[in-house]
Amino acid sequence: MALSEKSWALFLVFVAAVCIELYEAHDVPGRCMCHRKIKFIKGNFSDFQVLERRPGCDSIELTVTMSNPDNSTVKICMDTEGKLAKAFLRCWERINKDKSRKMECIDRKRKSETK
Protein backbone atom coordinates (compact mmCIF):
# COMPACT_ATOMS: atom_id res chain seq x y z
CA MET A 1 0.00 0.00 0.00
CA ALA A 2 1.66 3.18 -1.18
CA LEU A 3 0.82 6.59 0.17
CA SER A 4 -0.37 9.27 -2.19
CA GLU A 5 1.48 12.56 -2.58
CA LYS A 6 -1.15 14.33 -0.49
CA SER A 7 -0.75 11.79 2.32
CA TRP A 8 3.03 12.19 2.30
CA ALA A 9 2.74 15.97 2.35
CA LEU A 10 0.29 15.82 5.26
CA PHE A 11 2.55 13.39 7.10
CA LEU A 12 5.60 15.66 6.64
CA VAL A 13 3.65 18.71 7.86
CA PHE A 14 2.57 16.76 10.94
CA VAL A 15 6.14 15.62 11.69
CA ALA A 16 7.43 19.18 11.22
CA ALA A 17 4.78 20.55 13.61
CA VAL A 18 5.69 17.97 16.27
CA CYS A 19 9.40 18.77 15.89
CA ILE A 20 8.76 22.51 16.25
CA GLU A 21 6.66 21.97 19.39
CA LEU A 22 9.33 19.79 20.96
CA TYR A 23 12.07 22.28 20.06
CA GLU A 24 10.19 25.19 21.63
CA ALA A 25 9.04 23.28 24.73
CA HIS A 26 10.44 24.63 28.01
CA ASP A 27 10.47 21.36 29.92
CA VAL A 28 12.56 19.32 27.51
CA PRO A 29 15.18 17.51 29.63
CA GLY A 30 18.69 18.69 28.96
CA ARG A 31 17.85 22.29 28.08
CA CYS A 32 18.48 25.31 30.26
CA MET A 33 15.44 26.39 32.25
CA CYS A 34 16.56 29.92 33.03
CA HIS A 35 16.46 32.36 30.16
CA ARG A 36 16.05 35.58 32.15
CA LYS A 37 18.15 35.85 35.29
CA ILE A 38 18.06 38.37 38.14
CA LYS A 39 21.21 39.33 40.05
CA PHE A 40 19.70 40.36 43.38
CA ILE A 41 16.35 39.65 44.98
CA LYS A 42 15.11 40.93 48.30
CA GLY A 43 12.25 39.11 49.94
CA ASN A 44 11.16 36.00 51.75
CA PHE A 45 12.70 32.84 50.28
CA SER A 46 10.91 29.57 50.96
CA ASP A 47 12.96 27.21 48.80
CA PHE A 48 15.69 27.02 46.17
CA GLN A 49 16.88 24.54 43.59
CA VAL A 50 20.32 24.10 42.07
CA LEU A 51 20.46 22.52 38.62
CA GLU A 52 23.94 21.28 37.79
CA ARG A 53 25.50 21.42 34.31
CA ARG A 54 23.99 18.83 32.02
CA PRO A 55 23.89 17.93 28.32
CA GLY A 56 22.26 20.79 26.46
CA CYS A 57 22.87 23.31 29.27
CA ASP A 58 26.45 24.17 30.11
CA SER A 59 25.75 26.39 33.12
CA ILE A 60 24.72 25.86 36.72
CA GLU A 61 21.25 27.27 37.31
CA LEU A 62 19.76 28.53 40.56
CA THR A 63 16.03 29.04 41.02
CA VAL A 64 14.61 30.47 44.22
CA THR A 65 11.01 30.27 45.39
CA MET A 66 9.73 33.46 46.94
CA SER A 67 6.73 33.66 49.25
CA ASN A 68 4.47 36.66 48.72
CA PRO A 69 2.37 38.31 51.47
CA ASP A 70 -0.78 36.70 50.01
CA ASN A 71 0.81 33.23 50.52
CA SER A 72 1.36 32.75 46.79
CA THR A 73 4.79 31.71 45.55
CA VAL A 74 6.86 32.61 42.53
CA LYS A 75 10.01 30.93 41.14
CA ILE A 76 12.78 33.23 39.97
CA CYS A 77 16.03 32.39 38.21
CA MET A 78 19.09 34.02 39.73
CA ASP A 79 22.26 35.04 37.94
CA THR A 80 24.91 32.75 39.43
CA GLU A 81 27.49 35.54 39.15
CA GLY A 82 25.62 37.67 41.67
CA LYS A 83 26.67 37.90 45.33
CA LEU A 84 23.46 36.38 46.72
CA ALA A 85 23.49 33.46 44.28
CA LYS A 86 27.15 32.76 45.07
CA ALA A 87 26.27 32.63 48.78
CA PHE A 88 23.48 30.11 48.07
CA LEU A 89 25.82 28.00 45.92
CA ARG A 90 28.58 28.05 48.59
CA CYS A 91 26.05 26.95 51.20
CA TRP A 92 24.76 24.22 48.84
CA GLU A 93 28.32 22.88 48.54
CA ARG A 94 28.87 23.18 52.30
CA ILE A 95 25.81 21.01 53.06
CA ASN A 96 27.06 18.49 50.45
CA LYS A 97 24.02 19.04 48.22
CA ASP A 98 21.75 17.46 50.83
CA LYS A 99 18.20 18.52 49.92
CA SER A 100 16.98 17.82 53.44
CA ARG A 101 19.32 20.56 54.74
CA LYS A 102 18.32 23.33 52.29
CA MET A 103 16.63 25.34 55.05
CA GLU A 104 20.06 25.91 56.62
CA CYS A 105 21.00 28.00 53.57
CA ILE A 106 17.71 29.89 53.61
CA ASP A 107 17.99 30.56 57.37
CA ARG A 108 21.59 31.75 56.92
CA LYS A 109 20.39 34.20 54.28
CA ARG A 110 17.62 35.49 56.59
CA LYS A 111 20.08 36.00 59.46
CA SER A 112 22.43 37.99 57.22
CA GLU A 113 19.55 40.31 56.23
CA THR A 114 18.70 41.16 59.85
CA LYS A 115 22.24 42.26 60.69
From TrEMBL:
Look up the domain of life of the source: Eukaryota
- Among the record's GO biological process terms, what is one? immune response
Signal peptide residue numbers = 1-25
Q: Which organism is it from?
A: Scomber scombrus
Query: What is the protein's name according to its record?
Result: Chemokine (C-X-C motif) ligand 18b
**Keywords for this protein:** Signal
Q: Which GO terms describe its molecular function?
A: chemokine activity
Q: Which GO terms describe its cellular component?
A: extracellular region
